[in-house]
Design goal:
heterodimer; A: 558 residues; alpha/beta; five-stranded mixed sheet; globular; B: 292 residues; two-stranded antiparallel ribbon
Chain lengths: 558, 292
């Protein structure tokens, strides 16, 4: 990344704190990388389980880096570059925890990366902790020197010359959303810990001191959602974040936000279900759930960022949209996007914030002095009522979870119920118009749909494997077109029909990390469009590019 | 059959509580307390839960939220955080606060926001037609305990005291002047204030009538009780039955949420700040290896 390579980093870990088998993949290159591949070039093994579980990733030129005292069973078909991690640590008086940096040094030497750049990364990783930096740098150097001094019987892979590609950063989806919240002037974040949304809370907590954002760890997801909603009601931007189970606890509040017409933002970081499912793995099983969660009918906006870069811009955008339309909004990400790291262009500063129908205190007080009668739920053409911060002189904010009139006072009279229900619901039509006209609701990659042999309909992180699969299908002479839906609700039906209309007669596969093919179901429900088949994966691990390409080919033959 | 004319509230909404309902006394005390303290209506926020007490939202000309069942405590905490200038008061029912919402009670105490929580404790679920509540008497016959309540009675005062709440009091809906005084003291107290209000339910509770309470109630301030003595407060909390104390059990000054959270402490009320995009390049440098 410092040198100018594109890189992705993906972790896989079990739901436990100490021990167990943990794996981390890094893929780097001079071209944009979307997803991991089937094969792994260099395997660093700290335990025997590495080869047992990931043996399938080894190819004829793979290289194993391992301590022969620790890992005894190394597969026949891998090239071996042993390194005595334990002995080197002992001899140099280093803590065992620095072993991974020794491995980083060893792998860097194999790849021929310049030592000073590698050490710079180590320094950055442990920034602010001088003693830790020194120890880890030392360990890294020892690994680097050991590997450089060994006569190698093999030709290690070399990365092409890097081509620096401008201002760039390395970030996860959760962090990108958090930075988006900072940019978007979020003033309160309240959450309850739940994997894989917890890192978002960890980052936001730091923002208490750094960016003046009130961040509170609530006693439950119910409390978190209620606190964020109440904060929104006073006129500030507030959000909460969770995963499926916590989102279930928030459903009653989501419905209340629908009734209050409050721009409450909820981040849903998906993991496999049902129930506790696989807590530390990835899934896309809650698409339909996010769209339909909450009792009663009310408009909402659901967005699924395309990748880590997109997550930043969509977070700011959703804050704006929710405020513009006074509706709750959901950012839908999966663990793969939430926790995977990626090199992306540095985020832009020059974004505009929209306060929508909110009047600032002084504006509102001026208007009130001039005779304006404030009604928090005033019926308007597009359904959006002007509103004011709570505490504005001469104005009362009254919000009722019961059906209410324009003042926010309870009413069960039929003509009031009709008027207010329809006022809320007609926003949906206007939101759809706004989204389709002014925002990137659907993104296409690869061959244009009309030229493609096969079309993949996908969303979120499932798009990445599809992009890698395209590279493989190109070699087979198959033209792949990829259609990624970004704004999932209100479903961009006109744009969808316009694009998918060109796919007539072609095989269209949904690629999603669920079994039902939820995007296909949604598209069918709204537009009547029927996909050819669904390619799903529900074991918590994302597709690799080649794997998906092979699956697409096998479906073609059916 | 007598005809009961439902009164009209300050907002124009018709008051739909039963005639003689304890809520009328609490409404009178609340309005008198706010007026006595001279707080303008737009500076007052009331959050109510679900139940008969929840209708309060419709009857007072102040900012209000009528939230879902049991969630008054997190809402008033967040409102105070977003706008520290407001006088924030939560009104909850006994079912609301002591059954479905009891999980929030220790946490609002731990955070100690400068807000007041008043629990309309009528010992039954009124609006759902008279089921047992956590404060129903052992042996009390209700719709869900036809053979008498078999569960132990929840002790709100002891519970709240045990967690170190900074202002703990009990009032009686049948003594409006005393309750008005309590509400004013609670609002003036810097930190989380809790008032459990004994409120007869004239329709569904045959035990806790106005008379039953009047025969048992006495005022702590008339007995020389020292509200700074936590142990004395705790022993008073366990008095129930023949003698029932009302008044201020315990009062102590502690740092509030607004003192402890920097973004609240060092800024004007957050709700009054204009929307402004914040710089993020410093974060990209510090956390995300920004490289040219």
């Amino acid at each position: 990344m410092y040198m100018g390579y594109y890189a992705v980093g993906v972790s896989e870990y079990p739901s436990l704190i100490r021990g167990g088998h943990t794996a981390y993949w890094v893929r780097a290159g001079t071209e944009k990388i979307y997803e991991l591949e089937d094969h792994t070039d260099i395997v660093v093994a700290f335990d025997e389980a590495t080869f047992q579980r990931h043996g399938w990733e080894i190819h004829e030129d793979s290289i194993a880096v391992y301590d022969p005292q620790v890992v005894k069973n190394v597969p026949e078909n891998i090239k071996k570059t042993p390194i005595p991690f334990r002995k080197l640590l002992r001899e140099n008086g280093l803590k065992p925890i620095t072993m991974n940096m020794m491995a980083v040094g060893a792998v860097s030497a194999l790849l021929g990366l310049p030592l000073d750049t590698v050490l710079k990364s180590v320094e950055y990783q442990f920034r602010g902790r001088e003693r830790v930096i020194e120890e880890n740098k030392k360990s890294c150097m020892i690994g680097y020197e050991y590997m450089s001094s060994q006569p190698l019987s093999i030709e290690p892979p070399r990365l092409d010359e890097p081509r620096p590609w401008g201002k760039r950063i390395m970030i996860t989806g959760n962090e990108a959303i958090a930075v988006g919240f900072v940019k978007g002037d979020l003033r309160m974040y309240v959450a309850y810990p739940m994997t894989p949304a917890s890192p978002l809370l960890h980052f936001m907590v730091r923002m208490i001191k750094e960016k003046d954002i009130v961040t509170i760890q609530a006693e439950s997801e119910i409390a978190a959602a209620q606190m964020a909603l109440a904060a929104c009601w006073t006129g500030i931007r507030a959000a909460t974040g969770t995963s499926g189970g916590g989102f279930a606890l928030m459903n009653e509040t989501l419905s209340e936000a629908g009734m209050f017409e409050a721009p409450l933002i909820i981040v849903v970081a998906m993991r496999p279900g049902p129930s506790t499912g696989m807590a530390t793995h990835s899934a896309q099983e809650d698409l339909l759930y996010s769209i339909f969660a909450g009792h009663g009918e009310f408009p909402r906006i659901v967005v699924a960022p395309a990748d880590q870069e997109d997550a930043y811009y969509r977070a700011v955008e959703l804050l704006n949209l929710a405020w513009k339309w006074r509706v709750p909004g959901i950012i839908l990400e999966d663990k793969h996007l939430a926790e995977s790291i990626r090199t992306v262009p540095a985020f832009r500063e020059d974004l505009v914030l929209e306060k929508g129908a909110l009047l600032y205190k002084e504006e509102a007080e001026e208007k009130i002095r001039n005779g304006w009668k404030y009604l928090p739920y005033q019926v308007t053409e597009n359904g959006v009522s002007p509103w004011v911060p709570t505490g504005t002189e001469g104005a009362l904010n009254k919000s009722d979870s019961s059906e209410h009139d324009e003042r926010g006072i309870v009413s069960e009279r039929p003509h009031i119920a009709n008027m207010m229900y329809k006022k809320r619901m007609r926003k949906e039509k206007y939101i759809l118009e706004d989204l389709e006209k002014n925002y990137e609701v659907i993104r296409t990659y690869g061959y244009p749909v009309e030229e493609a042999d096969i079309v993949v309909l996908t969303w979120g992180s499932a798009t990445w494997a599809s992009l890698e699969a395209k590279k493989h299908l190109d070699k087979e002479g198959l033209k792949l077109g990829i259609v990624q839906v970004i704004y999932l609700w209100p479903f961009p039906k006109n744009k969808f029909n316009e694009i998918m209309g060109r796919a007539s007669g072609k095989p269209v596969f949904t690629v999603e990390y669920n079994l039902r093919g939820q995007l296909g179901l949604l598209a069918k429900m709204v537009t009547g469009f029927t996909v050819t088949d669904h390619i799903g994966k529900i074991d918590g691990r994302p597709f690799r590019g080649k794997q998906l390409a092979q699956e697409i080919i096998s479906r073609l033959k059916r | 059959m007598s005809v009961f004319r439902q009164p009209v509230s300050d907002t124009g909404a018709v008051i739909t509580w039963c005639p003689g309902c304890g809520n009328f006394g609490i409404l009178r005390a609340f309005k008198k307390a706010i007026n006595d303290l001279g707080i303008p209506p737009w500076k007052v926020v009331v959050v109510t839960g679900i139940g008969c007490h929840g209708k309060f939202h419709n009857y007072v000309n102040v900012n209000t939220i009528h939230t879902i069942h049991g969630r008054v405590a997190p809402m008033i905490t967040a409102i105070k955080a977003a706008n520290k200038e407001l006088t924030v008061i939560g009104l909850a029912g006994d079912g609301d606060q002591y059954a479905i919402g009891v999980g929030h009670l220790p946490h609002i105490i731990r955070r100690n926001p400068d807000v007041t929580l008043i629990v309309h404790n009528n010992s039954v679920f009124g609006l759902t037609t008279g089921q047992a509540s956590p404060t129903s008497e052992k042996g009390q016959i209700t719709r869900t305990t036809p053979w008498g309540q078999w569960e132990e009675r929840f002790n709100p005062i002891a519970f709240v005291l045990s967690q170190g709440a900074s202002f703990v009091a009990r009032g009686f809906a049948g003594d409006v002047d005393h309750l008005t005084w309590l509400i004013k003291e609670a609002i003036k107290h810097k930190g989380f204030s809790f008032i459990d209000v004994l409120q007869p339910c004239v329709t569904f509770d045959r035990i806790h009538t106005y008379t039953w309470y009047r025969e048992r109630i006495y005022k702590l301030e008339e007995t020389g009780h020292d509200p700074s003595n936590w142990h004395a407060a705790m022993s008073k909390a366990y008095e129930w039955g023949d003698k029932i104390p009302i008044g201020i059990f315990y009062r102590v000054e502690k740092p509030t949420m607004e003192d402890l959270l920097d973004p609240i402490k060092k800024n004007p009320p957050l709700a009054y700040l204009h929307l402004k995009p914040k710089k993020i390049t410093d974060l990209l440098e510090k956390y995300f290896s920004l490289t040219e």
